[in-house]
Design a protein that fits this description.
single chain; 5-stranded mixed beta sheet; two-stranded antiparallel ribbon; 9 strands
Amino acid sequence: MRDKSGRYRWYLEKILPRISDGGEFMGLIASATDITPLKEAELLMSQANEELEKEVARRTAQLEKLMMTDPLTGVGNRRYLNGRLEVEIERAHRYQRALTAVFLDLDHFKHVNDTYGHAVGDLVLVKTAETLQRCLRECDILGRVGGEEFIALLPDTPLEQAATAVERWRAEFAALSVGEHGVKVAVSAGIAQLAPEEEGEALLKRCDEALYRAKNEGRNCVRLSLAPAKA
């Protein structure tokens, strides 16, 4: 209701029937109590709760992002990659789409740390992550899964197409010079395409085996894992 000043206020109104001793209706008794301060307090409390819920949601999102992010390079960590791998494998199997994984490892990274120190080694890792992100498409997924090891997931990408892309990445690394010492970066890579009914662990194992071959066959090269033979 609006008061004399024209301001709207809240009232709690009670209307009770008045009955005679003989049970005859005699009219109504009404009372009104101004509860504006109570309603205003309820509104403030509601607004405070809403703001608190937003803050909790914001902080939860930040925490989840921290849990999924490699703190040094800013790319996804192993937890993030495992989650995305599961989703991409389910999608690839359901829609019969290609999915290729790339396991990359920096060559002679221990020599970089031993020669220039861990600060320069960290910078090399950061520049590696930046280079890979620049090379990847928006739909691709990148994660750092070890000291100098990275995994990229390439949805809708057959093995041969992925191999061509990774060779371009190697050219990007060849042109890279890091820090005041001009540290050169080279990578070895193992690539595998998801096979029908294959699970993530098996896919990454084949990538790792292909990477191992690349390391043993001279480093700074790419090796492919052929589809596993059917049982």
